[in-house]
């Protein structure tokens, strides 16, 4: 059991998303930074599909009401346990009665916290992800509030043995980090001026030559009104060579659509299932975790790659993640 | 069949069956969706039918494990499978469309824009209601919000553009008009449609399977109810 002493800015339960219901208009949701979500689960011996806490910008204060094995992945929000800095991207044994809080944002924007055994959250439509607009899923369909208590489920025998070892190594301390840490190619922070790789969107060719050129060369700034649904990109206005109205079609995580005012919107985890605005580009899946870690005010550049490159990059990443997961799993055997 | 393919990101393919909103294109979309429903495709994540397209989400890693050639791009592999399916699509049956009755309490506080729609089209409010009740309605797709139907078949003499300033919050069940379309707000959400009434029927039911009352391809009949009937039906848990 975990007690939320202070909720922070916005902390929600997320998983890999609510798939299978888009044809009924149900928004997918799920972790914005899928890699950080999956890795945090694996570090505590959970399957990738288990719920994690998605913590945004200003973290919560959490009191552990029993011993726990946790992992924090994603951005660096300067986590402290009982006042001592604690490392991200590795398993951490935390003693009953200890308090986790977060300091000033160092890098990134969102951090994922997994707990061994998983949070005990009833799935809605086969997913525990929170979709705030429809008050769907997660913890009572909402972000965490002060005083909430999260139950956790018992970890497996193998995970329990790791906890026993760390409890022993912990001695009188509040917590004990395990010795290994995830390699840096999955953990590198996002710097301002980050390049985001994109492929041509379905309506790319209908934009003016100047707009396409501006899109590929000029910087765009993340607007402060951005949320889990999408982020508005402030930069040169993008215009089309045609007035034809589009018929609504499916859109995806990472679709960059351009409403009539010319300001592009990058669609994120809580995007609608369909849209009727022209799509200039599509962010490569491998760069979506970078996008998830951008904060308002940051500048990005777009770099055009082919659809083929984008798909092979995804395949390569998945292979490397599988290797990482095999490596992590070996620590539990 | 004039079909085009395009990638939607690196994990989905969009199959386009036409370029206009009409029954013929809808029929092809529906036939393709039925084909997918009737075959278990383990590499598919899900699909979304729209007015003119079907988008299929797939798992590239599962496809690489199935494919005999590791050099073939998963997208190309999927496109080839779909081309094969389309050859025997004409024999795919889609079943008889369902007809769903949606009771609506028109006007008053439930339909704050009924008067504006009437004035805009130089009609009486009752004419707008009668014409809305007489439409031959078809659900082309579900999108925008959970369970939100895009409905075609409204009489064009009661059409009206969206409001210039969208409302911050529109109550669940509100029945509206936007251009030549009519629709029902399935959840409370901001929106710009002209509101002419409200239904007590719940269109989105997260606890049920399937969660959306309406499905693409359904026929719809609107019926007029009084405010009293609205509240009686609203109390009915099966409604």
Description:
The complex is a heterodimer of chains A (333) and B (239). Chain A is an alpha+beta fold. Chain A contains five helices and 21 strands. In chain A, the strands form four sheets. In chain A, strands 13-20-17-18-15-14-21 form a seven-stranded mixed β-barrel. In chain A, strands 7-6-9-4-1-11 form a six-stranded antiparallel sheet, with no helix packed on it. Chain A has a six-stranded antiparallel sheet with strand order 2-3-10-5-8-12. Chain B folds into two domains: 4-87, Gyrase A, domain 2; 99-235, Cyclophilin-like (Cyclophilin), CATH 2.40.100.10. Helices cover 26% and strands 28% of the residues of chain B. Chain B contains six helices and 13 strands. In chain B, a hairpin with a 6-residue loop joins β6 (137-142) and β7 (149-152). At the A-B interface, β16 and α5 of A face β3, β4 and α2 of B. Chain B: It comes from Halobacillus locisalis. Chain B: Its EC number is 3.5.2.9. Chain B: Keywords: ATP-binding, Hydrolase, Nucleotide-binding.
Task: Provide key terms for this protein.
A: 333 residues, Cyclophilin, 2 domains, 21 strands, B: 239 residues, alpha+beta, Gyrase A, domain 2, 6 helices, 13 strands, 28% strand, elongated
CATH architecture label of the largest domain in chain B: Beta Barrel
| β-sheet strand percentage of chain A | 25-35%
Query: Helical region count of chain B?
Result: 6
Distance between the termini of chain A: 26 Å
CATH superfamily membership of the largest domain in chain B: Cyclophilin-like
Number of domains of chain B: 2
Q: Rough shape of chain A?
A: elongated
Number of helices of chain A: 5
Number of strands of chain B: 13
Largest interface: A-B, 41 and 49 residues
Radius of gyration over C-alpha positions of chain B, nearest whole angstrom = 20 Å
Largest sheet of chain A: 7 strands, mixed, barrel
Q: H/E element string of chain A?
A: EEHEEEEEEEEEHEEHEEEEEEEHEH
N-to-C terminal Cα separation of chain B, in Å? 41 Å
Gross morphology of chain B is elongated
CA-atom Rg of chain A in angstroms: 21 Å
The major pleated sheet of chain B works out as: 7 strands, mixed
- Into which percentage range does the β-strand content of chain B fall? 25-35%
- Helix and strand sequence of chain B: EEHEEHHEHHEEEEEEEEH
Mean pLDDT level of chain B: 93
InterPro entries (chain B): CT_C_D, Cyclophilin-like_dom_sf, PxpB
Pfam families (chain B): CT_C_D (PF02682)
Domain Carboxyltransferase (chain B): 3-214
Keywords (chain B): ATP-binding, Hydrolase, Nucleotide-binding
């Amino acid at each position: 059991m975990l007690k939320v002493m202070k909720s922070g800015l916005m902390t929600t339960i997320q998983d890999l998303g609510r798939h299978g219901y888009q044809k009924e208009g149900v928004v997918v949701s799920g972790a914005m930074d899928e890699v950080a979500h999956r890795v945090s689960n694996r570090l505590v011996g959970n399957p990738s599909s288990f719920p994690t806490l998605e913590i945004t910008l200003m973290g919560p204060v959490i009191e552990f009401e029993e011993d726990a094995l946790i992992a924090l992945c994603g951005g660096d929000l300067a986590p402290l346990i009982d006042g001592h800095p604690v490392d991200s991207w590795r398993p951490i044994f935390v003693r009953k009665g200890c308090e986790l809080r977060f300091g000033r944002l160092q890098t990134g924007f969102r951090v994922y916290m997994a707990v061994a055994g998983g949070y005990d959250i009833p799935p809605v439509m086969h997913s525990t992800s929170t979709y705030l607009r429809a008050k769907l899923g997660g913890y009572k369909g909402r972000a965490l509030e002060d005083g909430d208590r999260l139950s956790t489920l018992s970890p497996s025998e193998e995970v329990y043995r790791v906890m026993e070892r760390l409890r022993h190594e912990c001695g009188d301390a509040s917590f004990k980090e395990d010795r290994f840490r995830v390699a840096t190619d999955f953990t590198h922070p996002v710097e301002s001026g980050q390049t985001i790789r994109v492929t041509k969107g379905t309506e790319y060719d209908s934009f003016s030559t100047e707009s396409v050129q501006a899109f590929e060369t000029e910087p765009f700034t993340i607007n402060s009104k951005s949320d889990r649904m999408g982020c508005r990109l402030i930069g040169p206005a993008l215009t089309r060579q045609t007035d034809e109205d589009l018929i609504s079609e499916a859109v995806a995580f990472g679709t960059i659509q351009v409403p009539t005012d010319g300001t592009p919107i990058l669609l994120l985890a809580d995007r609608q299932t369909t849209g009727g605005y022209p799509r200039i580009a599509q962010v490569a899946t491998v760069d979506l975790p970078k996008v998830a870690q951008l904060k308002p005010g940051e500048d990005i550049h777009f770099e055009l790659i082919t659809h083929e490159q984008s798909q092979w990059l995804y395949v390569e990443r998945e292979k490397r993640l599988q290797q990482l997961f095999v490596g992590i799993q070996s620590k539990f055997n | 069949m004039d079909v085009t393919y395009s990638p939607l990101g690196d994990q989905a393919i969009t199959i386009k069956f036409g370029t206009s909103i009409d029954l013929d294109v809808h029929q092809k979309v529906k036939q393709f969706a039925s084909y997918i429903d009737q075959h278990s495709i383990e590499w598919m994540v899900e699909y979304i039918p729209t007015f003119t397209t079907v988008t299929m989400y797939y798992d590239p890693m599962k496809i690489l494990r199935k494919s005999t050639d590791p050099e073939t791009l998963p997208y190309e592999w999927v496109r080839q499978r779909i081309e094969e399916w389309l050859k025997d699509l004409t024999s795919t049956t889609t079943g008889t469309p369902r007809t769903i009755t949606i009771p609506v309490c028109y006007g008053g506080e439930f339909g704050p824009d009924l008067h504006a729609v009437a004035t805009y089209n130089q009609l009486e409010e009752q004419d707008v209601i009668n014409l809305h009740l007489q439409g031959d309605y078809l659900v082309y797709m579900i999108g925008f919000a959970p369970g939100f139907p895009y409905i075609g078949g409204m009489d064009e003499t009661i059409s009206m553009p969206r409001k210039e300033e969208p409302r911050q919050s529109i109550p669940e069940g509100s029945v509206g008009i936007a251009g030549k379309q009519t629709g029902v707000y399935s959840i409370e959400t901001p929106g710009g449609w002209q509101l002419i009434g409200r239904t007590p029927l719940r269109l989105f039911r997260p606890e049920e399977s399937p969660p959306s009352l309406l499905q693409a391809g359904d026929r719809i009949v609107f019926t007029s109810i009084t405010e009293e009937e609205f509240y009686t039906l609203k109390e009915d848990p099966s409604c």
